[in-house]
Structure prediction request, 370 residues.
Amino acid sequence: MIPVNEPLLNGKEAEYLKECIDTGWISSEGPFVKQFESTFAKQVNREHGVAVTNGTAALEVAIAALEIGEGDEVIIPTFTIISCAAAVVRAGAKPVLVDADAITWNMTAEAVEEKITPRTKAIMVVHIFGLPVEMKPMLALAAKHGLKIIEDAAQMHGQTCDGMPCGSFGDISTFSFYPNKHITTGEGGMVVTNDEALAERCKSLRNLCFQNEKRFYHEELGWNYRMTNMQAALGLAQLEQLEDFVNKKRQMGKQYSELLENVDELQLPLSSTSYANNIYWVFGMVLKDLSVEASHIQQELGKHKIGTRPFFWPMHEQPVFHKMGLFIDESYPVAENIARRGFYVPSGMALQANQIEEVASTLKEIIAKL
Ligand SMILES: *Cc1c(COP(=O)(O)O)cnc(C)c1O
Prediction:
């Protein structure tokens, strides 16, 4: 079996974890948490990092910290994970969707501009699959209209846009450390910002809004989204290897691209744009033939014990949102197409070159038989 994702944990993960056990520091009070927060924040040119339980929680905390709520609109891509839309909806605000670009699979400033209304409060910028959203026009647009930017950089550890780290853009940025991300803590997430007051609000929100003076007296509702010392221990050890991991992923992307470049039926990920080189969070591809759906190819690859995943299913085609009266009769053709014809192949950190060869040759055989 070639799993779709297998993490690599052969740095100092075991050593740091043992330290947690040996010292008895296993909760969020342990020293690795602050160390991970400050090291991670520094790596993305941010002054403050607030570690949380996962990337979804990071988005919820970011939205709440920016005081987005009833009557506000937040522009988000339709082609993303549900965490983005859920965070906006749970805050009582309205998610407003934009389609993806057909080549980069990312949202664009042009599409966002068309959706701005007097109620728009923020843009949630979500970088997809390893190539960042082009930030220059997005930042200019936000500045022109006085909008906040929440940057969801969950798939962008170690990536840059115009030479600046992803996670450094806008008012607040979020990360996930799920095992399929470039660095993992098992489950985990982080909010980063340069604004001290915002960082303090995030810390309070992740810790049930306990107060220093009167601990069990609450002015606001928060969550228990605290990261444990054991997760932070893993994160710190992973962070030490980030550069190697990014190089490794780029090498995987290059190998897949070379092996599949002559397959006319496949649209492969862009290796680079004027503002970034792909870090291939996953190696995704889209079938060009409109009569074949990705699920067919995935089933065939599965018979050969090769793990795959479909692309995101668009937010405007989610029954849960239709039941809430959201996105009824909305249509975003690019997201609809890539959701049906897109899939990704094994691209975890532990993947070997010979496995990539096997995946590519099996995929070519399956496509030749179509
Ligand atoms: C993974 C991911 C999340 C959610 O992170 P979890 O840690 O799984 O909750 C949010 N946004 C994007 C873009 C992601 O890829």
Q: What stands out?
A: Residues 3 and 333 are 31 Å apart (CA to CA).
